Each structure stands twice: as structure tokens, then as C-alpha cells.
Input
Amino acid sequence: MILVAIVAELLEEYTVLLARVLEHLLNEAPFPRRMRFLILRSLSFASTPRRNPEAPAL
Output
């Protein structure tokens, strides 16, 4: 179970990093503005703030 949690955390970090890279590339891509907006909106999970693991749960 610990290994599964570690792999899940790594995949989450990798996904966020990949989404940020795609966001950066698409901001400078020669696509029409509307197309860039639609693509970037689908990557909205990258813009959500990460939770602080040291913060106490309420």
C-alpha cells in the first residue's frame, strides 16, 4: 500500500508538471486564440493550488 501511495504521488506531480509544460507551449503556439483557450481550459487541473500535506485536516 505504501508503494501504491508513492507511485500515485509521483504520477500526480508528473501530471501537474506535464500540464504546465503544455500550458507554456500552447501560450506561445501559433493557434487561434479561441483554440488555445479551449485547450488550456481542459488543462485546468494544473492551475489548481496543491494542498499542503503538513497542514492539519479540518
In short: The chain has one domain: 1-47.
